[in-house]
Design goal:
By secondary structure, this protein is mainly alpha-helical. It is 67% helix and 6% strand. Helix 1 packs parallel to helix 8, helix 3 runs antiparallel to helix 8 and helix 9 crosses helix 11. The model has no long low-confidence stretch (mean pLDDT 80).
Length: 303
Amino acid sequence: MKRILIFLLVNLAAVATLTMVAAIVCALCGIDPSAITGESFAPLLLFAFIFGMGGSVVSLLLSKPIVKATMKCRTIDGSEGAAERWLVDTIADLSRKAGIAMPEVAVYPGEANAFATGARKNAALVAVSTRITEQMSREELRAVLGHEISHVANGDMVTMCLTQGVINTFVIFFSHVIASIVRGAIENRDSGRRSRGAGSYWIYHMTVQFFQLVFGIFATIVLMWYSRRREYAADAGSAKLLGSPAPMIAALRRLGNLQPGVLPDSIKAFGICGKASVFSSHPSMEERISALEKMYNAPVMTA
């Protein structure tokens, strides 16, 4: 909760700063904000903040039930068999070392992958696919679980949600500002003949949609860059929990030779693997292994 409050306060300050900067720029350039937005920047920023942040927060709060349903997760408590008991005991041990409450544990059908989700670090869900439990050694799987527990302990789900909300806010805000400028320019050119007419209305909304698409692409690049930073941190967290980077490196090498399971976009950033690109939530396996080796100042040999 403290992390959420601090993040919200910081980003409210960022929104307030943006309002001030926009007002100063308009004053220096002799621009009337009401001519751009209809009133001033403040109501538009409030609108953008509510819709941009609101969608991300609702998505976070509903993440566990939605993922359970869409991924066909089966919650386990260890009484189902020896394999399930090992999973539950291992996650309990890693959670204790990470200083978080025991998350729910689930298994879902699919190719090799695992993920964590949840609105709070002490009420999270860690799930693994059936294939990853079959294709990895227990030491490798333990490293994967350490990676997911590190995501939870680092509060990555909340941080990514709030970061997405702030980015959405700026995308909505600037899209509407540019659309207002375009509409104003067209109306001035036509000497007000089509002012507030149907043509002006559609031009405005089409411009909003276009720039939301354009800015959304750049926003995705920024968000995925941040997600890749969190993957390095989760890998390092797993190495710390297990006392050595060797199991995590072995797990990454194994995953590089397996068919990765596809995850929904809402939790893709918290899976163990993914395709590497500028739009990817994960770095390449080679980059992740190299980062772990550099952390320990030498190549790490694994069996």
